[in-house]
UniProtKB/TrEMBL annotation:
It comes from Sinorhizobium psoraleae. Gene3D superfamilies: Cytochrome P450. Keywords: Heme, Iron, Metal-binding, Monooxygenase, Oxidoreductase. InterPro entries: Cyt_P450, Cyt_P450_sf. This is Cytochrome P450. The keyword Oxidoreductase applies.
Length: 420
């Protein structure tokens, strides 16, 4: 067996906070490897990148997500009762429910319709510029809450949008910033528990087939039991939070359109064939999840390295989608690459790799891609908006990343070509 290369420093936590998305790839490049050992928060960790590493994370048995994230990140993103913390048959069953809810063509079309309507209401009569990410976060919150089936009388959309955004914004920041977001998340969970309880005791009625009903009333675990109210609230948040989070990529779509006016012009003229390639390239190029964690429930031999049971592993999602061996000239924006989530491969992995039904790959990729395609159509054709600035930067040291300064949109008095 080969020895796993090691970093020279005792602990790399400060380097990770400093280097952000580039942390794993910087060390892989320095050591000439796709795997190395280090310590984070004084805990031994094995960092990996590339197609074979993704195959281990999303294709092998005995690789669990339990115990693989610091607890603040776990609580903000998934929580202990969520599908991501399940393994084996329990995971497959819960995951099948997510796939039914989030990957069904008619269901995705219904969400898109709500997204379009809320977008048009938001922007049609607006006279002033606004922050694209903030606006999209509110629009997506309204659209997803409608789609899930949460009655408008039981929601405060502005507050809900703020709380959902906070959970994502604060994942990369340990300490008091994350604690505040945790308090905010706890409030959301309590609010969702009251809705699930009202549905179960008959004091609330919602439409057949909506996600709220399917999670709270219809779903049964392998032993025939429904989810607890708390678990149902966690899974409802597992739809609300990530759908609102697509707003971060909406901002990057805005930046990509502003930087590439030739594409904007094509889409403005109704040449829609390449929209999917365009938004898939946005998902590849612009950062979101830097890496995912896993723990080995049993030892594994991986490409000649022995990984003992209990090992804590990190898979470099950002580094893999920027690896020049997999994506030539990886810093170039090239929609012609023709990438698509439908290939279910282990290379293009911004939301995980492999098959979603049998692994922890994200069940929300279809929704994400369709929302981003609709964003392009809205921004370029249906209701053209002016996008500024063209020269925003994307600092990789801040997780999660955003354009700096923020992308703004406003009434386009000179027509669709004016991105300045
Ligand atoms: C905003 C864009 C999104 C990004 C960047 C993203 C990213 C990811 C990633 C990297 C994973 C894999 C985690 C792992 O391997 O442990 C994941 C899992 C998951 N995502 Fe997404 N996601 C997004 C949108 C969505 C949407 C729209 C939904 C809901 C419809 C969703 C629901 C989930 C769920 C429930 C899981 C856990 C799956 C499992 O453990 O089997 N995500 N996501």
């Amino acid at each position: 067996m080969k020895a796993i290369p090691q970093t020279s420093s005792l602990d790399s936590t400060l380097a990770l906070l400093h280097e952000g998305y580039a942390f794993i790839s910087n060390r892989c490049d320095e050591l000439g490897t796709d795997i190395f050992q280090s310590r984070l928060m004084l805990r031994p960790v094995v960092c990996m990148r590339g197609e074979e590493a993704a195959r281990l994370f999303y294709g092998a048995d005995g690789v669990t997500r339990v115990g693989a994230m610091p607890w603040t990140v776990l609580r903000l993103l998934q929580d202990k009762d969520s599908v991501q913390q399940l393994d084996g048959e329990a995971h497959r069953r819960r995951k099948a429910m997510f796939i039914d809810i989030a990957m069904d063509g008619a269901a995705v079309a219904a969400l898109l319709e709500r997204f379009r309507q809320h977008w048009l209401v938001h922007f049609e009569r607006r006279k002033e510029d606004c922050d694209l990410r903030e606006a999209a976060n509110l629009i997506l919150t309204k659209a997803s809450a409608d789609w899930i089936g949460i009655p408008p009388s039981r929601r405060d959309d502005v507050k809900l949008a703020r709380r959902l955004a906070l959970m994502i914004d604060r994942t990369g920041r340990p300490g008091p910033a994350a604690w505040l977001a945790l308090v905010s998340r706890r409030r959301l969970e309590r609010w969702l528990v009251t809705i699930v309880t009202a549905l179960r005791d008959g004091s609330l009625e919602v439409a057949e087939g909506c996600a709220l009903r399917r999670i709270s009333l219809d779903y049964r675990d392998a032993d025939g039991q429904p989810m607890s109210e708390e678990a149902a609230a966690v899974e409802l948040l597992n739809l609300l939070r990530p759908i609102a989070a697509i707003s971060r990529w909406v901002a990057f779509v805005g930046l990509a359109l502003a930087r590439n006016p030739q594409w904007r012009e094509r889409f403005g003229q109704g040449q829609d064939d390449d929209i999917e390639g365009f938004v898939e390239e946005v998902r590849r190029l612009y950062p979101f999840f830097p890496f995912v964690g896993a723990r080995l429930a049993r030892s594994q031999d991986w490409l000649g390295y022995s990984l003992p049971e209990g090992s804590w592993l990190l898979l470099d999602l950002y580094g893999t989608t920027h690896d020049p061996r997999l994506f030539p000239s990886p810093t170039n924006f090239s929609p012609e690459r023709g990438l698509t989530w439908r290939d279910l491969d282990f290379r293009f992995i911004p939301q995980g790799g492999g098959r979603p039904e049998s692994s922890h790959r994200c069940p929300g990729e279809k929704i994400t891609v369709e929302i981003l395609k609709e964003t392009v159509k809205l921004l370029c054709g249906i209701l053209p908006l002016r996008i500024t600035p063209v020269n925003a930067d994307v600092p990789l040291s801040i997780i999660p990343a955003s354009p700096v300064p923020a992308i703004r949109v406003g009434p386009d008095r000179a027509g669709p070509r004016s991105s300045a």
